[in-house]
Amino acid sequence: MRVLICPESFTGTLTAVQAAEAMAAGWQRGAPHDSLTLAPLSAGGSGFLHVLETAQGGVTVATTVSDPLGRSVPASVLLVDEGPSRTAYIESAQAAGLHLLAADERRPLLTSSYGVGQLIDVALAEGADRIIVGLGATATNDGGAGLLGALCAGDQSALCGGGGGLADLRAESLAGLAAVVDRLARVELVAATDESLPLLGLKGTSAVEAPRKGADPVQAQTLEGCLGHFTDVVAKVRPPRLDLLTGLPRRPEREPGAGAGGGMGYALFLLGATRDSAVEIVQRAWDFDGLLHSHDLIITGEGRFDRESLRESVAAGTVRAAARLGRPAVVLAGQVQVGRRETMAAGVAGAYAVAERPVDVASAMADPVGTLATRAERLARTWSPPPDRGR
């Protein structure tokens, strides 16, 4: 049997490449007669560049940028040339990732996306005519104000102090926004995310994402008000364009994906970006449909497979792509928190956990490679029994 192994990272323990290698090692032990292909994936968060470079090569430009609290951290931009066109890939988590902060440093009122703007500046300096920004796994909730500040859209002291500092923002603080929009007009800018949440509201970034980044309910409400004020000021400085179909103003904060990356999607939309699926971007780099055609079984996975995963995740995107071509897709995750009825309804052929009981979580975290490989070995024996040599 031909098996395609294509997980994303197991957050906090394994990169997507490491997870794919561990799965492959275990599967090979359980079904040595199978042919395996590894194609690790990403939803735009940590590991986005590593996966893309593994899939299609490119040149990495190393640099130093500010982390969410203003400290210097190493980061990079991946450049891929296709004829006269140059695409720059940016991983926002390298500059604004939650993994860059200790638990007691998670302060979404203060964290800034400034470093992501610095990475865009590097991409522009390298002559990119297309810039794809992977949004995910960030520690920020500033609506991309810091990103705009790094690109000289206005007063950096007002824009780059975190989401909580936007309450006092004034129109003068965005005096350079039009110039930044003009500067980026020659570039195709893409917000790479599979998240559809808007910037504001009960399903917006402050309500949904800020608690994961350290905000308590009061702070989440404060951030909601600050981002609302930010959008009001932006609308005065740069009035929204009219929708040609409805004649109504197109408010970028309401666009699906505006809340991705703590609202960096909103800032990118202000600069003229379009939204594309991060999962599909990586799949295209792998020629994923071609891989699906040539394999019999698809194995994907992530750290925790839950209800949200059924909607917006690498696993969901992989299952949908496999279903289009009639290929069975199996999920192998650190933990599975959805029932069989839900997974079957989503088209998942089977969902299997490394930590099958709560008591197993500690050992899985202590040896993520070993436990993942062992579970993959058991899974291989279930899905790919040895051929009958007697026939």
Short description, anyone?
The chain has 391 residues and is of the alpha/beta class.
Can you tell me about this structure?
The protein is of the alpha/beta class and 391 residues long. It has 16 helices and 13 strands. Strands 3-4-5-6-7-8 form a six-stranded mixed sheet, sandwiched between helices. Strands 2-1-9-11-13 form a five-stranded parallel sheet, sandwiched between helices. Strands 10-12 form a two-stranded parallel sheet. α1 packs across α16.
Uncertain residue ranges? none
What is the helix/strand order?
EHEHEEEHHEHHHEHHHEHHEEHEEHEHH
Number of helices: 16
**What summary fits the major beta sheet?**
6 strands, mixed
As a percent range, the share of helical residues equals: 25-40%
Q: What do the pLDDT scores average to? A: 93
Q: Kindly report how far apart the N and C termini lie.
A: 17 Å
Could you tell me the number of beta strands? 13
Strand residue content: 15-25%
Structural class: alpha/beta
The best one-word shape is globular
Radius of gyration: 22 Å
| Spatial sequence of strands, sheet with the most strands | 3-4-5-6-7-8
Per-chain topology:
Elements: E1 2-5, H1 16-30, E2 35-38, H2 48-56, E3 59-66, E4 72-82, E5 85-91, H3 92-96, H4 114-125, E6 130-134, H5 145-150, H6 156-159, H7 177-183, E7 188-192, H8 205-208, H9 217-237, H10 260-270, E8 274-276, H11 278-285, H12 288-293, E9 297-300, E10 304-305, H13 314-324, E11 329-333, E12 335-336, H14 340-345, E13 350-353, H15 361-366, H16 368-383
Parallel strand pairs: 1-2, 1-9, 5-6, 6-7, 7-8, 9-11, 10-12, 11-13
Antiparallel strand pairs: 3-4, 4-5
Helix pairs in contact: 1-16
